[in-house]
Amino acid sequence: MGKPKDDGPSATWEKDVKIILCDLCLREIELGNRPSTHFNKEGWTNLIKNFFEKTGREYDKVQLKNKWDQLKKDWKLWKELKRGSTGLGWDPRKKSIDAPDEWWKEKLEVVPNAKKFRYCGIDLELEDKLDLMFQGIVTTGDHAWTPNQGLHNENDTEDSEHIDIDFESFEDPSQNLESINDCSQLKRPSSTTSTGRRKRIFGSTFLRSQITQLVNFCTNISSGISASKSITDTPSLSAAIKVLEETTEAFEDMPLYLFSTNLLEDPTNREIFMSICPDRRVNYLRYCYGNHDTTS
């Protein structure tokens, strides 16, 4: 393209550029190009091309993947920082959580790496997009378990790439069955015949390999459908906040408003709030707020 590539360490990521990258990533997820924890070859190719068209920045796969991984780490750290806290607001001056110094002191003792968010946090718009990107593949600080992964190993890295499987490469199952049937008609060789042992071992290994590939293929298809469904079914946090601010009684009641912003971070509460009659939304918020005061 004639334009020199930015070096990874010197690449800058302003907020609007991060938003563009997130939007492009979400589009590839909706297209099914992230079948597991990372994008497939087509997904990365589209990201590189579309990111250049949107920003004029010619970043390669390594640079975009590094940013993906960094966004995921920051998102997990941000969620850990906010875990267990309710009624938190947003300080537009500090661009972070509006909380007393005592709260920050206690939290940073537990999550010391989150100190970088003290004066520069993740705002609602970006957090909403990161939720959609990572909630389906990260649980309690690690990848969500999928059937083809076996038991979870804490030494597994986040950089493991998904291996694409070409479904068209599978042989006709009927041909495989015919081969097996033909073999079954042969006279069973003596246990001392090495050729017979090799045939039996090869047949077992081949069948096991075909079954494993088929299971992996079906699992990847299921993961892609689940990721796409989760994006389209759950109302976004930014959309819920807009509706909240249009709910006059809640917006003018600052304690209720701050409580509600935190309440709507939960996808279930958010879906209930967006689904009920607009005239009854403030009643729902007050009910939750009163229930919260009683139990706290």
TrEMBL record:
Residues 12-106 form the Myb/SANT-like domain. InterPro entries: Myb/SANT-like_dom. This is Myb/SANT-like domain-containing protein.
